[in-house]
Give the backbone structure.
Amino acid sequence: MPTRHPTSVRPGPGHRGAALGALVAVAALAVACSTAATPAAHPAGSPTVAAARSTPAYGPATVSGPTPGDLEAVAAGRAFSTDVQASTASFVTAVAALQSDVTGGNLTAARTDELAAQAAYDGFRDLQESNPINASSLDELPGDVVPGESFGGLHAVERDLWTSGPLTTDVAALAAQAPAVPLLLGREHLGPEAIASVAVDQLTWADDQALPVDQEPYSHLGLVDVDATVQAAATTFAAVAPLAELVDPARTAEVRARFATLAAQIAALGPPGAAPESSIAPSARLALSQQLDATASMLAGLDAVLAPFGTEGPSS
């Protein structure tokens, strides 16, 4: 599986005003550069895929046209881009609602908004973390803040809402950053193999980070992250599932069944926005961890059969 994230680095000391400026600047550059993207050529296929693609999808053999899987590969890339756009838009909407409710003094609604914003962030976390500076300014945990660096983003707002802190200031800073997120990620284009890798990474993060370590240190509602990340992985998998069914129907059916099991296990733990971490029994936590690992492993096995369809999709 390709490693898609660079080594994490820390933002420099001081307030994050400079980071916000860089975020917006990079967003503008991302929009300008994305129009120049071109699809990668399909490498030679595996025996399974080669057999599936041996006959043109339509027309006689002498007529050039799409081969089996090509249309599904293009559809997968477009579906993934649409999903990313939806999750970033949800994030912006939730942050705007958060700011409105804080301004109006409705802190109960603001808590719900903050959890919704966190869940939306989990939907594109794997892509956002490819830029450690931007990711840390949005979702840095308190234990990750180095001396001389200010604490901001979702978890600063979480602290303010569930304990105390400069709520209005922290929400305003988060609201100022939120609109840049769709600009940075809204035109993300990946091919089928890379999309499957995103889903694997999402499941791995849920298993290695969200489940064993409370990612919501003030509200202690870390099940929100587990649930949202697994839902994001299921949505990511759904984007590539039609192509996966064509090249490996048995494994695809198994992955789909495992996602259904994951959803049932998480639902049994209670409402994510109300069930505290302490309410999860050790046996249920272990069973969920085992299922997360098994689902990620099964999904990772699709990489080899999706690789012939390229790692980057068309720029639409």
Summary: Confidence is low (pLDDT under 50) at residues 1-63. The longest helix spans residues 70-103. The CA atoms of residues 55 and 205 lie 40 Å apart.
